[in-house]
Structures are given as C-alpha cells and as structure tokens.
Specification:
Helix content: 25-40%
Order of helices and strands: HEEEEEHEHEEEH
Largest sheet: 7 strands, mixed
Number of helices: 4
Number of strands: 9
Distance between the termini: 87 Å
Oligomer: single chain
Amino acid sequence: MSLSRARSPRTSRRSTSGRAVLLTAITLASALTLSACGDSGTGGKPAGAAGGNYVTGPSGISTVAKADRVDAPKLDGETVEGKTLDTTTLKGKVVVLNVWGSWCPPCRAEAPYFAKVSKDMTDGGKDVAFVGINTRDNSKQNAAAFEQNFGITYPSLYDPDGKLMLRFPKGTLNAQSIPSTIVLDKQGKIAARTLVAVNEEQLRSMIDPLLAEQ
C-alpha cells in the first residue's frame, strides 16, 4: 500500500503535464488555422504610427502615401505551370499580388473577381500585371485545377511553404493571412494591401488610383 501511495504523485504530475502539452498543441493549431485562411484583422495603423506609415480604410484596405512607400522584395521562382517568374522585371506596371490556396474558401470566393478584372485590364491595354502566390498547396495539380476552374489566366508563383511572404520587410504592408492582396505601384513600391477576400469594386479601388499616378 505504501508503494502505491508513493507512486501516485508522480503519476499525477505526468497526467497534469500531458494535459498541458495537449492544451498547448490545441491552442497553437487553432491559431494557425485562423491565420491560414480568413480575416486576421486589418492590421492597419494611422499614418506616422510606429511600424508603418499607412492608413486603413473602413473596407479593410490599407494604403500608403506615395512619398512613404518602400520597395517590395524580389519575388521569384517557379510558377504553377512550371515556368520561371521574377516580379522585379514588371517595374513600369502596377503589379497586383494575390496570395491564395486552392483549399481556402475565401480564396474561392474572390477568384471570379480576379479573373474578371485581370482580363478586363489586360484586354484594355492597362499597365497592370497580376501575379498569384499559391501557398500551402501540397501539389501543383490542385493549384492548376483551381486556376482552370476559375478562369485564372495570369501566372502564380508556387510557394507551398510560404517562404516568399517572409521576404516582405517587417512593419510594411506585408501578407499576414490567406488570402491577402498587395498592390505595387509602377516603381515597384508597396502601395496598398488587404488581408481579406475582395470583390470587384474593392479590387479596382486598389488598382485604379495607382494607374492614374504620374
């Protein structure tokens, strides 16, 4: 009987420790799920606030004044179609970067708008280029099927581990959720961002002012 009582505190400590580890794992998994697909908040700050000179409007779109913009990082690599792409070669155009995954419901919701707006602007001869960043898809086949289903004709960099998103400077309008959309001005500087799915009107509102800039 005394031996049994001596072991019980150790058994209790192991049980408590196991529960703590399990709760930590569940909390971490929940956080990753929230940031992986959906609204992670606007993340915007008033102009001049520490961490970024940008303003977030009521629609969740953050913008930076022309004088306060910083250079976007080089985003390069293999596309879903197996070709190579380097976004720095697109300077001179407004560049629309859309972070997406085929598994992501908000990405599916906004895809028809990206297909329509990109086609309208390309057919209209606008100085704009669309580039997707496909992430957390475990195969290019899933990503390619998504593009075909929604009529996406512009290229997407294949970035299953999300490494390209880490190239954005801290404190800037970087991608913090899936989906995210970041728009660069004609000089390759970060000008606008949203961390939620967009409709056609919102997407055009991010692009048109930059096209009009001299």
